[in-house]
Predict the 3D structure of the following.
Amino acid sequence: MAEQPFPGTALLAQVLAADNTETPPLRTTRRGSQPPARGTEDGKPPPLLSRRNSILSRRSSFGMVPGSRRPSWMLHRRVSFTGLPIFQPILKTRLENTYRIGPDKGCKFDAERVRRVLEGTLACALGTAAYSPQGSAPLAQSLTELLQNQAKEVVPPRYKLVCHVVLGQQGQQSLMVASRGLWDPETDNFASATFSNASLFAVATVYGVYFE
Amino acid sequence: CPPASFLVDEVSSIIKEAIEGAIGGNAYQHSKVNQWTTSVVEQTLSQLTRLGKPFKYIVTCVIMQKNGAGLHTASSCFWDNSSDGTCTVRWENKTMYCIVSAFGLAL
């Protein structure tokens, strides 16, 4: 996760240092004199072009011919020794330590609240649904996503959620759903709800695990 | 130390062993189902902890009698995709289906 300096910039720094020491100050004053709006436009008025020629001719190693039109990126952006543009490196943000090892007081996973949310959502979503072999698979998937979104709203922050739904056809069979978790019992918990009608049954479980 | 990752193959083999050990050659019996699910889940969990990785685990087991009815399971998770993972194993014999899901959440 450490930020690596972009290799191109190191090379450019070397090239600039090795180059005429007079040029850096000249470049900055030239940039200051140009209006800020000319970020990427291509048209250059002739008087500015002559000024640019004087710097660029000094840098003959860049392979530029005096008097020719430069593309806008060569004049306004940093250029490597090959003449190609160097884009600014994308810096990865490093998050600071929060020094928190547990959830705030009163901010734990509220199993009862989540259970009520699950029951309500299941009744709403499956109230009139009937089991069908093709339709029930996407129904189960959409149900998990729906339940997860509902649970996210009532669960405190810094909790990871796992939402598991079992949807089956109501027949004369028996079924057992069991689960076990290895977690911190003080901060982590789960909630489950069931729903059944004449043609299908559903068992939904949401586990909330604290992430430190 | 480098952050550990959830290796699906490793976990999948652990789950398969646990299922075979608990209900391997048995036929569905309503009275024993409770005990079977418990033993599958406990066996899986203890093997997972033996891996010694900095993870919190959740193991779910569904055992259903084969009676012509259809069954679907689905799960969705709100977590960190780069470090957390899940593994689901479907097993069946002549009289029952068994679906075991294991979720690992990195600390």
